Amino acid sequence: MIEFTDVHVRLGSRNVLCGITASLSERRVGVVGANGSGKSTLARLINGLALPTSGSVTVLGMDTRRHAAKIRRGVGFLFTDPDAQIVMPTVAEDVAFSLRRRGLPRAEVEQRVADVLARYGLAGHADHPAHHLSGGQKQLLALCSVMVLEPDVLVMDEPTTLLDLRHSRQVAELLRELPQHVVVVSHDLPLLADFDRVLVLDQGRVVADGTPDEAIGHYRKIMS
Ligand SMILES: Nc1ncnc2c1ncn2[C@@H]1O[C@H](COP(=O)(O)OP(=O)(O)OP(=O)(O)O)[C@@H](O)[C@H]1O
């Protein structure tokens, strides 16, 4: 599903990722590590937002270097700050904007938008200004705008950072139910507790890779 082969990323004078090799086929994969350890860069490699300096990343059977546009259609990406993803005035318009290049009839767009807003609890906000939503609701809106495209893989970079406990739990619950493969970068360790696999990054290298218990245990040790 997602294959990293001896991936190095150099940004400016810094070696941000140093020889990452991993094959991710589990449904829910978490990535933890200290600030600056390379987690966001790793996440961005998955949809071609970042490219390896050497080595390769293959997603859905395609090399991200050669098939960036196709890969972006199959890989949804959620940024930490949902405001960065809001582009249209109202909630429904913002979700519909995601579908603009699909060539769908207007009625079908409206139906898909209504369905996804209902699924994630935003049906009552369809005509509200997107920027008036609460932080948690904006996170849900960003999720709707990605999920309406029915991606095969969902990558989330610190999705609960701005959320209160209730909304964090809601995201955790959603992650449990999503049919998609998800890769979640997070400092929110409880969020990852029931994931299938967790990678620990340290200074651009994978230093632990296993069950949440094993990997998070290792992470706690190196951070103590
Ligand atoms: N465009 C860039 N040019 C130079 N260095 C960069 C660039 N982008 C990121 N870096 C550096 O790469 C390193 C890894 O950054 P990255 O954002 O991947 O880390 P992270 O583990 O996600 O950190 P955090 O937990 O703080 O979000 C950092 O030291 C950062 O300063």
From TrEMBL:
Originating organism: Nonomuraea turkmeniaca
Record's protein name: ABC transporter ATP-binding protein
One Pfam family named in its UniProt record: ABC_tran
GO molecular function, one term: ATP binding
UniProt cross-references to InterPro entries, sorted A to Z: AAA+_ATPase, ABC_transporter-like_ATP-bd, ABC_transporter-like_CS, ABC_transpr_CbiO/EcfA_su, ECF_ABC_transporter_ATP-bd, P-loop_NTPase
Gene3D superfamilies linked: P-loop containing nucleotide triphosphate hydrolases (3.40.50.300)
PROSITE patterns per UniProt: ABC_TRANSPORTER_1, ABC_TRANSPORTER_2
Protein family per UniProt: Belongs to the ABC transporter superfamily.
GO cellular-component term (any): ATP-binding cassette (ABC) transporter complex
Record's keyword terms, sorted: ATP-binding, Nucleotide-binding, Transport
Ranges of residues in domain ABC transporter: 2-224
Source lineage: Bacteria, Bacillati, Actinomycetota, Actinomycetes, Streptosporangiales
